[in-house]
Design goal:
Elements lengths: L7 H23 L3 E3 L5 E3 H14 L6 E3 L7 H4 L4 E9 L1 H6 L5 E8 L2 E9 L4 E6 L3 E5 L11 E3 L9 E6 L6 H12 L2 E6 L4 H6 L5 E4 L5 H13 L3 E4 L18 E4 L1 H15 L1
Parallel strand pairs: 3-4, 10-11
Antiparallel strand pairs: 1-2, 4-5, 5-6, 6-7, 7-8, 8-9, 12-14, 13-14
Helix pairs in contact: 1-2
Length: 278
């Protein structure tokens, strides 16, 4: 599909993300206030301003919104929705506060509990990865290419001849290390790279990392956009509870623990399983 021929609702989402990124960067450089939410997690001026900007744009589509910095609709009403937006206006607030650049904007379109489109925009690098199974996946350097002439299509990478790269959360390392230790026994060559927020999915989509296990709490808006992108590239995000892809617009907006795998890792895993069974 021509990346310039996206449905209008996704173009609106892209514009929302770009404007939010600009505001986030402005606040990042000029200074910001930080406070704690009721659950103890931090929130900054940038989170709130980004949420406001994105909401103004997405409300034009008439599609209801679930978001981290919104008062979300109760489940008895939400469960009747056929579709919704799932938004994290500033994913990686802890990294934003640390000023390490590892934060992003996540917007996903959910239909009947499944992510069909996602975008992840990285303010500090001025780039966006976006797509879904019906469109393909694309990398856009929007900071230097607003006319979209240099958008690159990302194709699935099925070969994995080098080391398996495990991408880990920078702020929530823990039980996933035990899982990776077990993984390393058959593969013998697993190395870790830590990274904050959903910008991990840039590495997964571009073949720079291959697995992302997460055995710590996440919310739907943390993962939905990345799942749409990864699945479009032949990868998967599987719940450790039931072995099924993650679902969205649930009663609880918490995700189960999961493991994200790229197409290359799935091929390596399948190859090992077949050799092991001989």
């Amino acid at each position: 599909m021509d990346p310039n021929q996206l449905p209008t609702i996704y173009k609106i989402a892209q514009q929302a993300a770009i404007e939010a990124c600009k505001e986030i960067l402005s606040i990042y450089h000029l200074g910001f206030d930080t406070s704690d939410k009721e659950d103890g997690s931090p929130v900054t001026t940038a989170d709130l301003r980004s949420s406001e900007i994105i909401s103004v744009h997405l409300e034009k589509t008439g599609i209801p919104i679930i978001g981290e910095e919104r008062k979300n609709t109760p489940f008895p009403e939400r469960k009747l929705w056929g579709e919704n937006w799932c938004v994290d206006p500033l994913d990686g607030t802890k990294e934003f506060i640390k000023r390490n650049g590892e934060f992003c904007v996540n917007i996903a379109h959910i239909e009947n509990g499944k992510p069909v489109f996602g975008l992840i925009a990285e303010p500090c690098k001025g780039r966006m990865i976006y797509g879904g199974s019906a469109f393909g996946v694309y990398l856009w350097d929007f900071e230097n290419d607003l006319n979209q002439k240099g958008i690159q299509e990302i194709t699935p990478i099925f070969n994995l001849d080098e080391d398996v790269v495990w991408i880990a959360s920078r702020s929530h390392e823990g039980a996933d290390a035990d899982w990776v230790e077990k993984l390393s026994k058959p593969f013998r060559s697993v190395r870790k790279t830590p990274k904050g927020s959903a910008i991990k999915f840039f590495d997964l989509a571009l073949g720079l990392a291959h697995i992302y296990p997460r055995f710590a709490p996440t919310m739907e808006w943390d993962i939905a956009a990345g799942q749409a992108i990864l699945e479009a590239l032949g990868g998967t995000i599987i719940s450790t509870e039931n072995g099924q892809p993650l679902n969205y617009n649930k009663d609880s907006l918490f995700n189960p623990f999961f493991v994200a795998k790229t197409s290359a890792f799935l091929m390596r895993e399948k190859k090992f399983s077949s050799l092991h069974s001989i």
